[in-house]
Design a protein that fits this description.
CATH class: Mainly Alpha
CATH superfamily: MetI-like
Order of helices and strands: EEHHHHHHHHHHHH
Number of strands: 2
Largest sheet: 2 strands, antiparallel
Length: 259
């Protein structure tokens, strides 16, 4: 296994046993990156799930132009990350950015440097990643919503149930299996996030926005530490696998596949 070797590509792998893992455990940078990844996932996953479900409800209507609206909402997902980065770099620009310009209009005299301040850079990446991703999950939710029998809503309306009650009593229980699938792929995507970090912040400032996938790339191809990067990759694989198993354990107890 590469994670048990010292290897810089230019030379043959040299067996070092568990030295890479020992270095990981004692590395403040690794723990910071792991914490960043968990915070990223903790913000990204619920954000994507809630926004994409809300958008799916909004476009699950028989309205003129709704197909065009669905296409517009899906467009960011198929847009290249470089183009997305150019757009959001302008939005997040400290002095002349659109977002800080709006904040100044609302009385914020000293808005943050979104991509250069440690507290804000990771949040900025969450915003960009969410904006780019929700269109795909929206389509999945939309497909699930269109499989719910309309007669159930008609019966609920006759009984006097409001829209919100219908969502919680009919929609969410019936699309629970699909929602769980969307949660799993979103959760895995959160821990594998790389592109947005690579093109927007490069993990900076001072690793404040660095995540495990980018940390693997950085050690492997910037520092040439293939063995150490492989050890980080193994940790990431075990972490994602363990959390996914926990999610499936919870699913067996809370998700019903019976209509």
């Amino acid at each position: 296994m590469a994670s048990l070797t010292a290897w810089n590509v230019r030379t043959s792998p040299r067996w070092v046993g568990l030295d890479n893992y020992s270095e990981l455990i004692g590395s403040d940078t690794f723990w910071q990156v792991l914490r960043n990844t968990i915070v990223f996932a903790g913000l990204f996953v619920p954000g994507v799930m809630i926004i994409s479900f809300g958008l799916a409800l909004a476009v699950n209507q028989r309205l003129r132009g709704v197909q065009f609206i669905r296409g517009v909402l899906f467009l960011p997902y198929i847009t290249t990350m470089v183009a997305v980065a150019m757009l959001w770099n302008w939005i997040f620009a400290t002095r002349f950015g659109l977002l800080n310009g709006l904040l100044r209009l609302f009385g914020v005299e000293d808005p943050p440097a979104w991509l250069a301040d440690s507290p804000w850079s990771l949040i900025a990446l969450v915003i960009v990643a969410t904006w780019k991703t929700v269109g795909f999950q929206m389509i999945l939710f939309l497909a699930a919503l269109q499989g719910v029998p309309q007669m159930l809503y008609e019966a609920a309306r006759i009984d006097g149930a409001k829209k919100l009650r219908q969502v919680f009593s009919i929609t969410l229980p019936l699309i629970a299996p699909q929602s769980f699938f969307i949660f799993i792929i979103t959760f895995i995507a959160a821990f594998q996030t790389f592109e947005v970090t690579y093109v927007m912040t490069g993990g900076g400032p001072l690793n404040a926005s660095n995540t495990l996938a980018y940390f693997i790339y950085e050690n492997a191809f910037t520092f040439g530490r293939m063995g150490y990067a492989s050890a980080v990759a193994m940790v990431l694989a075990v972490l994602v696998g363990a959390l996914t198993l926990v999610s499936f354990w919870v699913r067996r107890r809370v998700v019903s596949y019976d209509l």
